[in-house]
Predict the 3D structure of the following.
Amino acid sequence: MKIKPKFGNAILADSAREQSYSKIDAHGIFTNFLAWGYPATRNWSMVVTAFDLPMKQSTFIVTIKRRGSSEESVLVSANFAPPDRQNESIFNIRLGHRFEREGSYEIICSFKDYDSTLRIPVRVVTQQWPVITERELDILRKNRNAFMNKLAIQISCKNCNHTYKFEEVIIPEDDVTQGSIRIPDDGNFECNNCGHIMKLLDFKGQVRAAIKENIANSLKHSAHV
Ligand SMILES: [Zn+2]
């Protein structure tokens, strides 16, 4: 009888790593990607269990597709060695995708040469723009060592590959760190090299949302002091 692999279950997490022979630790399990602008590039881990694996090399394929769209992008297509003892396995796979718009998506796992599939629903949800209030700015100015107030990121132009170091600076009167470029208010930066418009609004929103959260958490914890 020909063995046909079957999928068990899957989770999406910020990160996951092998803990021991047959276990994996996952950290930051989620169902939604939060986005502040598009494109929004995300990297994450996916842990998938599978049973009745063939005792030979097989190809594991992961694709993603937006619901209602016929376009499917391949995230990973990788060969894996035959399982050494049991014919079941846990796959810990690092994935990345550039989301062009919000909506419901499906991550689809399959094996080449077999028709078993596993579909994992995931949503991309646009967040309200995190406006930094005067009060928050005041807190940032007075506690420069306690809170992050700028963050740099290295991003390459998708068109010509030229790499830039950008910095999101929250306190308006502060300068960018030497060697960095301030992210424009609308998040759009025209590549000096080729004229392509690089869209950095999502990164800008992520930094601002994280800073607002830091301040809110800190105020919560110091309320009784
Ligand atoms: Zn360019």
